[in-house]
Amino acid sequence: MTTVPDSLDRRFRDAAASAGLLDVAYDFADSPIGTLLVAASGRGVCRISFDPEPERELEALARAFGARVLRTPGPVDEARRELEEYFEGARHEFDLPVDLSPLPAFQRSVLEELVRVPYGRVDTYGGLAGRIGRPRAARAVGGALNRNPVPIVVPCHRIVGASGSLVGYAGGLERKRALLGLEGAILAG
Amino acid sequence: MMQAVAAIPPFERFYEERKDEILGYLARLLGREAAEDAFQETFLRALRAYGKLEHGRHLRAWVFTIATRVAVDERRRATPVAEAQDVPVHDERPVYAELEHLAGELPPTERAAVVLRYGYDLSYDDIGAALGSNAEAARAAASSGVRRLRRKEAS
Fold it and tell me: N or C: less crowded end of chain B, CB within 10 Å?
């Protein structure tokens, strides 16, 4: 049985990315809060996943962006570098373009506003709802954050309950606490 | 009731499932060194067409088709050879198993037909599609290839 050597495999993956033939490129990145799957479309980073289950992630990416999904490091190198700098405390803002294009308009407006909450600060669900002109929509804002496809870069960890409690996080409260701790945010309780 | 159309898998999964088999096939047709370039060309062509697929059925035969065309183009460029003649047909699997080591000396169309039929068990319909002809022509090419192998062995 023939096995494709790593060098040939890598050569094909690089060629596919260089030729601009991919809907989505992805790779994995180590971080202090576990292995992350990082994916980018032609427009920007479109997925960061904690505890990635690749089968499910790839299916979801293919549905949202197109079936030409391939693991190839080049197109996500920049994202991995910025994440690394963030985890070292050396980066407070991401310069990466983010692709939220498949999301419903409401969720997109929540996430676009969320990016304005600065490093090391927190806001509340109600506060964010107010900032997008939907002061009564705190619960819907919570739902939009829970399905944030690009956590960390789109900082849903900076949104907490009205009392300052962490409330919830799709990646688990431990990770939310770790990210806020890294940023030096001061929390109640 | 809705019948699920065979979904198109993410390319990563398709590629991982097929890459070893396709490299093996190309190596049988072209030799290991030339197979590596043909491998890359095959999957780049597959990737170009992948976004236009309407369903995920027959993906294995589909990628063999692409690989065959890449290999035949490659071989035609390298060594022009005479086309196969039509001949009658039987199941020649046992002969192929014994004579596979000689397959490198066949003309490209016969060689692809023989290897796809007896090495990878593709149907003559699929092989015909791979060769840009039809099932009858594929059957004839495979059969002619096997007869040529026998002659080579005898000589």
Answer: N
pLDDT, tens digit (0-9, with 9 covering 90-100), for B65-83 = 999 999 988 877 775 544 4
Residues of B with CB under 8 A from a CB of A: 8-13, 15, 19-21, 23-24, 27, 36, 39-40, 43-44, 47-48, 50-51, 53
B105: which DSSP letter?
G
**Calculated CA dihedral for residues B22, B24, B25, B30, nearest 10 degrees:** 120
Residue A46 known to be catalytic: no
Predicted TM-score (pTM) of the model is: 0.83
In chain A the domains, ranked by start, together with CATH numbers, are: 6-87 (3.30.160.70), 105-183 (1.10.10.10)
Confidence of residue B1 (pLDDT cuts 50, 70, 90): very low
Domains of chain B plus CATH, in order, are 11-154 (1.20.140)
Q: Give the one of B43, B48, B50 whose C-beta lies nearest to A67's C-beta.
A: B50
Taking Cα atoms as reference points, which of B51, B48, B60 lies closest to residue B14?
A: B60
Half-sphere exposure of B7 (CA within 13 A, CB side): 11
User: Which of B5, B8, B12 to probe the A interface (max A CBs under 10 A)?
Assistant: B12
Confidence of residue B97 (pLDDT cuts 50, 70, 90): low
